Amino acid sequence: MEAVVDELPVILGAFWLTVKLTVVSGLISLVWGIALAAMRVSPLPVLRGAGALYVNVLRNTPLTLIIVFCGLGLGTVMDVQFSDDLSLNSFWLSIIGLSAYTSAFVCEVVRAGINTVPLGQAEAARAIGLTFLQTLRLVILPQAVRTVIAPLGSLLNALVKNTTVAAAIGVMEAALRMKNLFDAHGDAIIPIFLGFAAGFVVLTLPLNLLSGRLARRLAVVR
Amino acid sequence: MLHKKRKVMRMRFAAGLLALAALATGLTACGGSGASSIVDKAKDDKKLVIGVKIDQPGWGLKKPDGGYAGFDVDVAKYVAKELGVPESGITFKEAQSANREPFIQQGQVDMVIATYSITDERKKKISFAGPYLVTGQDILVRADDTSITGVESLKDKKVCGAQGSSSPKRLAEKFGPDWESKNLTQQQGYGACLPLLENKQVDAISTDATILAGFAAQFPGKFKLIGQPFSEERYGIGLKLDDKAGRDAINNAIEKFFKDGSWRKAIDTNLGEFGKYFTTPPSVDRY
Amino acid sequence: MTERGATVLYDVPGPRARLRNNALTLAFGVVLLLVAYFVWTKFDEKGQWKGELWQPFLRADTWTELILPGLLNTLVAAALAAVLALLFGAVFGIARLSDHRWVRIPAAVVVEAFRAVPVLMLIFFAQYGGSLAGLVVTEFTAVVFGLTVYNGSVLAEIVRAGILAVPRGQAEAGYAIGLRKNQVMRLILLPQAVTAMMPAIVSQLVVLLKDTALGFVVAYADLLNAGARVVPANYANLIPSVIVIAAVYIAINLALGYLAAWLERRSRRSRKVTADPAAAERAGGEVAFVR
């Protein structure tokens, strides 16, 4: 127990990094995922094909592999460099990996949300003379957004846990920090583990409750 | 009748559960060889499980032909032969930097020969035969880089290390946590550092000269060693803490390895031109 | 009724829209090609297309000696973890529905706690905690432990939701004809629930298979380890090797994905099902989509 108390600043620092990874890659995934969904439902076969290819490749590759590739390949082959500070650089590289991966799932959730809106809704909207944007804004999105809230909540929840994979390229987030603390305090492994596990429960439980509640409140009755 | 059938079903289910549990525990239990000495095990079974690196060119490398090659592998074969185990009786197993002590403590391997430095810290958990080679932490840089002349130059350079290895820790202690955060990246093994060095994501890789020489030999003309070791690493053969008999027998084997010229031969075949960095065998430390 | 080609977003294109679409297709096509060309030249610039980096993958022994043993290790870990996780899920999923509070509540705590903890942390914990307790914890055991506990907890939720999704009348009818609690569960609820849960279970097993790659971080000799360490140590071709390994993973996961889709179609067609597969899927929550 002492070890956990002594190392509390270190543990909190690690979780702060976990939170940053989650928030930043969550936002990027949301934007990029919606863009991908737009590609996949567009009337242009080129975009549909490109979107489908992206989603199928990224969704079926292990996250560990994606992050390792981002950590080693993006810098060495594509000359991607974010910072002279190596910690910061691998932080951003892992964000690219996490976002590239998560956005594929966001895309599928959003696309499924759009597809749950019955065709008749859109036809009715067009019949009363609404333009494309009006149809989207007033009829389709309000219904689609409600159905995607719960699955997006679960995605965010998974993302919190997935940030630990950044450890593979040396980002000092919670899991790698925990391992290092195991090395330093061989006699306090269980308290340290419980401390970190509690941290993740604290991070994910409110997310679960909130998204479940929102989803129930906004559910579309059909 | 129906009742009986149900009972049989239930028993079958229970038996299945038991079998699964046995499978799970059996999988974890295999490899434990008890407290007896490695000498007895070698004599009785004619078999040894030896932990080596599998991704370190020149030292321990798994080959596409199914075999293993490298200096450590040659040492392993020689020692095993001296203990009475033929080459066919050796099972090689990957020992990664981070898991070598637990490997030996838990009996998953009989000994570890994997560019393994003898340290007091490690001696608390396991024991060492040897050393069979003395080297030091050195620096690998791009062949055209003249700005790095020694360890002090690393203060404002970017360095790559492997997670769980002691070399990056030494630099981090020397230059402080701020340097560690900004200038040090820790990857999964030193192999991952090479592309980063080649493409200037980092300026140097720092660990034992041996490991660096092995990689440098793989990319002719691209990298160079600084050649000024700033630590002393004594590579030993790791085995169980209480196995004094095993340590003595292996030390005898190592001394024979030095004397009959096999040491020099193994260095030259495995490191080629980089063999020049390793001139004389050390003397064995019997503690 | 609706004409072919109309979607919820777009009406059937008229002549002007068709023209515009064609122009846009051309424009986006060019943009995508430019992106592909840019990536290609970057690889070329860095010498990543060099033959000697890719040639090893045309040799049989690279596959049989270096890559396939890794793939085998991946599949073995995934298979054992899948069996154990299903067992874990069944036990805890049913326990959470128990009438006894002293069974229900501990089961709920275990499931909720392990669902919240990342697999990688569970793997590290198994390694360090296990040797603390004097157990022999191989990387294999650690990986299987982490995958079992995490995915078992998620599966427990799927099982629970699947059972709850069977209409109440079914259980009531069972009690009415004099069946006991465990008979109702075994003979009536579970058989119907399992069919409904199948797609969710299979997608969770795909998740599990992909997660075996976490073994790389603790040096389990899996497929990713073969591609990122073993092959490059021989041929100094890290990037090409990782790309080839990614293709292997994608092929396997796509095949499993098609299997999941096929199972789902089949269970939808089957008239015996009274439980709603979508309900089980929703309950699994992160299940279906994630990871």
TrEMBL record, chain A:
Location of the protein in the cell: Cell membrane
Record flagged with keyword Transmembrane helix: yes
Top-level taxon of origin: Bacteria
CDD domains: TM_PBP2
GO CC term (a single one): ATP-binding cassette (ABC) transporter complex
MF-aspect GO terms: transmembrane transporter activity
Domain ABC transmembrane type-1: 15-211
Keywords: Amino-acid transport, Cell membrane, Membrane, Transmembrane, Transmembrane helix, Transport
Record-linked InterPro entries: AA_ABC_transptr_permease_3TM (IPR010065), ArtM/GltK/GlnP/TcyL/YhdX-like (IPR043429), MetI-like (IPR000515), MetI-like_sf (IPR035906)
SUPFAM superfamilies cross-referenced by the UniProt entry: MetI-like
Gene Ontology biological process terms, A to Z: amino acid transport
Topology in the lipid bilayer: Multi-pass membrane protein
Transmembrane annotation, as ranges: 14-39, 60-78, 90-112, 124-145, 188-210
Presence of keyword Cell membrane: yes
Main location (coarse class): membrane
Family affiliation: Belongs to the binding-protein-dependent transport system permease family. HisMQ subfamily.
Annotated protein name in UniProt: Amino acid ABC transporter permease
Organism: Microbispora triticiradicis
Automatic annotation (TrEMBL), chain C:
Topology of the protein relative to the lipid bilayer: Multi-pass membrane protein
Sorted UniProt keywords: Cell membrane, Membrane, Transmembrane, Transmembrane helix, Transport
Transmembrane region(s): 21-40, 71-95, 107-126, 187-209, 238-263
Subcellular location: Cell membrane
Keyword Mitochondrion: no
ABC transmembrane type-1 domain residues: 71-260
GO BP field: amino acid transport
Gene Ontology terms, MF aspect: transmembrane transporter activity
InterPro entries the record matches: AA_ABC_transptr_permease_3TM, ArtM/GltK/GlnP/TcyL/YhdX-like, MetI-like, MetI-like_sf
Family (UniProt): Belongs to the binding-protein-dependent transport system permease family.
Name of the protein in its database record: Amino acid ABC transporter permease
The species this protein was found in: Microbispora triticiradicis
Organism classification: Bacteria, Bacillati, Actinomycetota, Actinomycetes, Streptosporangiales
